[in-house]
């Protein structure tokens, strides 16, 4: 399509629309391209624009003229200042480039004019459907409130999620010397400032706060001038007493835009019309410009428009999804800012810098080793010790490092008895360096099994087998701890082995199920359980207590009570699984009663010097399920009863859940519980790298990190993480028989002779 004479209409004259027009015209000089912009040329929202080196590299390659003009305008800096409670922490090595949004538009206007693109300012574009009748391609770059997207919502299927913080875009007539975050703890609540220079004499200033703080401060009743003055007064120190100015600024709430499709016939969405990313990671303009680059390239590369639009979406969607996940994490961090206010100063700064999970401990250390080293010292890392190899004490148990082998059902027991497979499986991972290796969910009764292959702890034979495994860990991996997780399947029991059909009932040999309520896990598929009556509740409680006594005699170092994933105790906690009308159902206080009774019974049997943890599902990922406030209350209730840590998982309570998968996607729930309730937490959920572990620990989002699949891939994951970080201390000792393998084996030859000559 690169040499055709297409007619192209662009709705919206922001950076994305203008740059798309310029690129498409440059790549196809014969194309007839018109841009409609309802505002005047110099009307713009906001003040400064930040672009990454990656985006600038794409611009340089695609259009050197635009790149040269931008390069001459950029203000560059590499430091971030974080001011909190009168103390400024500075981190360097970050690398930013910014310019005024108005100047960016002027550069793009000039480029479009020079290429022959028609720009129609102060003109409302005709509807996309009307333009599509006479134009080959219609590009909808009409922003977050896109009329095009709404007109064809049945095809694009947009999902708009409003958020609760209020913010306002302002400017200061002087250049800050760093990207500045500042926290103000006012009488109304917490307010925050995000500010950065965008020219030699101006800075963007964004003031943000929770909706309730905004209202309490009376800012909902202020006009633009009064709001501007109030913000300048609140952050007078950052501004050195100088005023702020607005540009028709008003208080806004951010909306996350996601579309199931980005194109409809010959119409395609780009920029904020297709997707939004929170301003705290500075990606709105970046994404729009990168959309334009990808769209222009695909139109030039593909044989027809339909293929080009499909290729554009295929290329951009995963990149955008990744950015939106990072933006969502950053947005949530600022929404929950008040939970971090009491963190030590350097930890608070590190937490802010790593909030989106795109900046991690390792790359922050590369950017600013002195700052990261100071954070590690404040955390308590011994010299030369990564955070993950810093010991942690829970009651009488000292864990040599912060890595946990997460409980993973192996479905390989016979009549509940763990065999050689379990010895090798758990023993290998304990030898692999983890501070704590957890068993799978060990069932407290035959009826409490998930499958016929599940392990149990309800007979002496089972206890003897577990004692053999615990003894092996203690003898062969000195310093390693092993923990047992006790649970009861509830309504999710009597099913096939995972690889034969997960959650599918047995073809034969089923056993009766019991649960909080007579609700099948999968309606029309699963068995209907019997609701536990008084006698049944008492019997189950005693089964847990008996299993705890056996676990103590086996020599386990830690016991975890499984109250997650839709199993019996989790089923009492979730309103989606508990429809009881007695003292064990209804309000959360009632739904907690039986799990707490079981906890008390287990704690009574478990030795006082050994720690006990509780695994919970902090959300059901389904409407009407466990809420964020419920999760806090559940964690608080168990902590008050004596839980030494909360193992924070999510979901698996109902089959129609809708998890928001992604890297470390469950860790925000652990973070919130830790920093709100004040109880130690174990974070789980797609934590896959030692860098993630170090980052979560150092930021104060977790005390321990549990990893499952990485330990299936590599039983020696922890030892290898130590080797990759050049750590050889007591937090990750290699077993004596393995010590010869503690260095990375040499790879293939890399010292081949270099070419002597280059011939052109």
From TrEMBL:
User: Which domain of life does the protein's organism represent?
Assistant: Bacteria
Q: Where is the FAD-binding domain?
A: 7-324
Stated name of the protein: Bifunctional salicylyl-CoA 5-hydroxylase/oxidoreductase
The Swiss-Prot or TrEMBL record annotates one GO molecular function as: NADPH dehydrogenase activity
Signal peptide bounds? none
What's the source species for this entry? Streptomyces finlayi
Q: Which Pfam families match?
A: FAD_binding_3 (PF01494), Oxidored_FMN (PF00724)
| Renumbered residue ranges of the record's region Disordered | 733-760
Where does the record place the NADH:flavin oxidoreductase/NADH oxidase N-terminal domain? 388-722
């Amino acid at each position: 399509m690169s040499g055709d004479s297409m007619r192209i209409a662009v709705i919206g004259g922001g950076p994305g629309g203008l740059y798309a027009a310029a690129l498409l015209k440059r790549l196809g000089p014969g194309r007839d391209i018109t841009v409609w912009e309802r505002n005047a040329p110099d009307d713009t929202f906001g003040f400064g624009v930040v672009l990454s080196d990656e985006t600038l590299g794409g611009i340089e390659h695609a259009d050197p003229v635009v790149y040269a003009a931008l390069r001459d305008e950029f203000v560059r800096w590499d430091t971030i200042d974080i001011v909190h409670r009168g103390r400024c922490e500075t981190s360097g090595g970050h690398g930013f480039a910014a310019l005024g949004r108005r100047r960016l538009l002027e550069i793009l206007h000039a480029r479009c004019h020079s290429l022959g693109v028609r720009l129609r300012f102060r003109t409302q574009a005709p509807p996309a459907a009307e333009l599509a009748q006479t134009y080959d391609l219609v590009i909808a770059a009409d922003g977050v409130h896109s009329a095009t997207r709404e007109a064809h919502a049945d095809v694009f299927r947009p999902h708009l999620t409003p958020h609760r913080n209020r913010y306002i875009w302002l400017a200061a007539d002087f250049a800050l010397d760093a990207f500045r975050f500042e926290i103000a703890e006012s009488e109304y609540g917490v307010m925050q400032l995000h500010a950065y220079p965008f020219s030699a004499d101006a800075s963007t200033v964004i003031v943000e706060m929770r909706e309730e703080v905004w209202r309490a401060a009376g800012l909902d009743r202020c006009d633009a001038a009064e709001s501007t003055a109030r913000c300048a007064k609140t952050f007078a120190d950052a501004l050195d007493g100088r005023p702020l100015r607005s540009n028709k600024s008003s208080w806004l709430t951010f909306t996350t835009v996601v579309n199931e499709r980005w194109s409809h016939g010959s119409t395609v969405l780009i920029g904020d019309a297709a997707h939004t990313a929170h301003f705290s990671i500075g990606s709105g303009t970046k994404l729009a410009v990168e959309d334009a680059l990808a769209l222009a390239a695909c139109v030039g590369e593909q044989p027809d428009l339909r293929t080009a639009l499909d290729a554009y979406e295929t290329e951009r969607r995963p990149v955008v999804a990744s950015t939106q996940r990072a933006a969502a994490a950053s947005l949530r961090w600022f929404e929950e800012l008040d939970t971090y206010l009491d963190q030590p100063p350097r930890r608070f700064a590190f937490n802010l810098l790593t909030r989106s999970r795109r900046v991690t401990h390792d790359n922050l250390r590369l950017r600013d080793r002195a700052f990261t080293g100071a954070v590690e010292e404040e955390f308590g890392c011994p010299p030369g010790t990564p955070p993950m190899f810093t010991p942690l004490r829970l009651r009488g148990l000292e864990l040599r490092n912060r890595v946990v082998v997460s409980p993973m059902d192996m479905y390989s027991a016979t009549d509940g008895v763990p065999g050689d497979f379990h010895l090798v499986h758990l023993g290998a991972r304990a030898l692999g360096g983890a501070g704590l290796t957890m068993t799978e969910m060990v069932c407290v009764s035959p009826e409490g099994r998930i499958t016929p292959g599940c392990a149990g702890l309800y007979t002496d034979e089972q206890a003897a087998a577990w004692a053999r495994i615990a003894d092996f860990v203690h003898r062969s991996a000195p310093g390693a701890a092993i923990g047992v997780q006790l649970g009861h399947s509830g309504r999710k029991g009597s099913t096939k082995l995972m690889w034969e059909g997960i959650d599918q009932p047995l073809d034969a040999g089923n056993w009766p199920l019991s649960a909080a309520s007579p609700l099948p896990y999968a309606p029309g598929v699963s068995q209907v359980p019997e609701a536990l009556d008084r006698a049944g509740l008492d019997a189950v409680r005693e089964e847990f207590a008996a299993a705890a006594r056996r676990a103590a005699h086996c020599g386990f170092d830690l016991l975890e009570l499984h109250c997650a994933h839709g199993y019996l105790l989790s089923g009492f906690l979730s309103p989606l699984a508990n429809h009881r009308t007695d003292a064990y159902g209804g309000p959360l206080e009632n739904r907690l009663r039986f799990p707490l009774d079981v906890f008390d019974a287990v704690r009574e049997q478990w030795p006082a010097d050994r720690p006990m943890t509780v695994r919970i599902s902090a959300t059901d990922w389904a409407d009407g399920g466990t809420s964020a406030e419920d999760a806090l209350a559940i964690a608080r209730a168990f902590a008050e009863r004596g839980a030494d840590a909360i193992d924070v998982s999510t979901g698996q309570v109902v089959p129609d859940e809708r998890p928001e998968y992604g890297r470390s996607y469950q860790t925000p729930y652990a973070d919130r519980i830790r920093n709100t309730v004040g109880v130690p937490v174990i974070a789980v959920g797609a934590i896959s790298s030692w860098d993630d572990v170090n980052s979560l620990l150092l930021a104060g989002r977790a005390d321990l990190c549990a990893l499952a699949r990485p330990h299936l891939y590599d039983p020696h994951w922890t030892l290898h993480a130590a080797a990759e970080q050049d750590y050889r201390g007591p937090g990750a000792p290699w077993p004596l028989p393995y010590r010869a393998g503690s260095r990375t084996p040499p790879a293939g030859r890399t010292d081949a002779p270099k070419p002597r000559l280059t011939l052109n």
